[in-house]
Amino acid sequence: MIFVAAGILVIASVACFYRVIVGPTAPDRLVAVDAISLFLALTMVLLAYQYRLAPLYDVALVYAVLQFADILIVAKYIERGELHL
Amino acid sequence: MTVVQHVLAGLALLGGTFFCVSAVIGVLRFPDLYTRLHATTKGVTAGSLLLLAGVAILEADFFVVGKLFIIGLFFLVTNPIATHAIARAACREQLCEPQVIVDEYQEYLDRLREEEEGGLEYRSDHW
After folding, report:
1. Residues B21 and B50 in one domain
2. Which residues neighbour A44 within 8 Å (Cβ) at sequence distance 6 or greater?
3. Which domain holds residue B80?
């Protein structure tokens, strides 16, 4: 059950990578990267349950935080052309 | 107990994967940036919440369920913010112009620019 859901998520990530490659503009690619990173965090949660790895939940949480910061920074870079951090 | 647990978790996992797959189909098939944003945000948010709920049903530990709840709450808060940042960047850079019919944010920006060029008296009249 868990393996089926994780496998479907991995296949969905690979399918989403098509949009990263051929996306016409930069925000299209950013949308696809956002979806892929969320799928990766969800796969981490599923595998943490399957393999009884409790620290992997923390890894998924930190990954979600860093992914959010990443998306915001790249969106700001697209908007202004440079970073004012 | 455990049979009910497994059936509920299976239903939640099934719904979560369904929403994630429909979000990916939307990303691949929709013609426009904003429609893609629409598909991926709602689909991935609902799918991630359902998947986390499924794992939380299977996992009976209190701390792990709390951790999953925090992850779900974080997804629920940050996903619309990231989507809004992407849409704002695309709208400001006019990267997605041809298929947009009504663009009120661009009209607002134009009006703001006119006010800045027009000087102080126009702004005081306007407000």
Report:
1. yes
2. A56, A57, A59, A60, A63
3. 2-96
Distance CA B64, CA B98 (A): 48
d(C-alpha B54, C-alpha B76), whole Å: 16
C-beta separation of A40 from B44 below 8 A:
no
What residue ranges do the domains of chain A occupy? 2-80
ipTM for this model: 0.88
B37: closest chain A residue by CA: A31
This prediction's pTM: 0.85
CB contacts of A76 in chain B (<8 Å) are 85, 89
Phi–psi pair at B95, nearest 5 degrees: -85, -10
Instruction: Tell me, yes or no, whether B70 and B111 share the same domain.
Output: no
Q: What is the pLDDT along chain B (127 residues), one digit of tens a residue?
A: 688 989 999 999 999 999 999 999 999 998 888 889 999 999 999 999 999 999 999 988 888 899 999 999 999 999 999 999 998 888 887 766 656 677 777 788 788 888 777 655 444 444 4
| Closest of A55, A42, A52 to residue A8, by C-alpha | A42
> Which of A47, A52, A63 has its CA nearest to residue B75?
A63
Cβ separation of B36 and A58 shorter than 8 Å?
Answer: no
- B74 and B125 housed in the same domain: no
Number of domains, chain B: 2
State whether B58 and B108 are in the same domain: no
Q: Which residue type sits at A11?
A: I
| Interchain pair A27, B95: CB under 8 A | yes
